[in-house]
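Most newcomers find our protein records easier to grasp once they have seen one. Sequence and backbone structure share a record, each on its own labelled line. To make this concrete, we reproduce a full record directly below:
***
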Amino acid sequence: MGVEGRDRAKVLEAGAVALSGQLGRTILHLRKSHALSLAELSEQSGVAKSIISQIERNETNPTLATIWRLAQALDVSIERVLQSTEDEPFVEHSSKGDTPILVSDDGKCHLAITGWIKTVEWLQWYDFTAEPGGVLDSTAHQRGSVECLSVLTGELEVEVAGVIAVCRAGETLRYRCDRPHTIRNHGPVNAHATMVCILRAAVME
């Protein structure tokens, strides 16, 4: 399916939320490393204590001016504030509620965007479910794009440029998605699969 149109807006919104959460964690880490209380950081930065608290809890999206004031008070660059703490282990947790869901036109197919927002321009992956009779029509992605569909349960049919292939549980289909393509569930039970879309794969002739 890929990220197009209004669905892209959903992904970008998810990215903004992820960036806001990263910013909050970094501000909290820097404040504690400087042994500053919320009140002290507020006094030094001119940013209200309540706003700093909301930023650290990922409850607000601060303006660039607010980020600059906090960076100045913490004696770091804005770039440092916007990046994760280098000496921290990289563990990023996305809750079920934070995971964007795309729905097919017939309402029977759902794609949970489980991929990392930072790779969305070249690598996307999803948790895909389709009810019996569900059809997911997708427009063509950029030239050379390849999609990989691994069926976990049930059975799915993929059609690309008139070529049809069936994928059953435990099997994987890889196909060009730089042309219109369709995934269908003709089976009697729900189908569940993982889908990976490589947007910058080598061009296949």
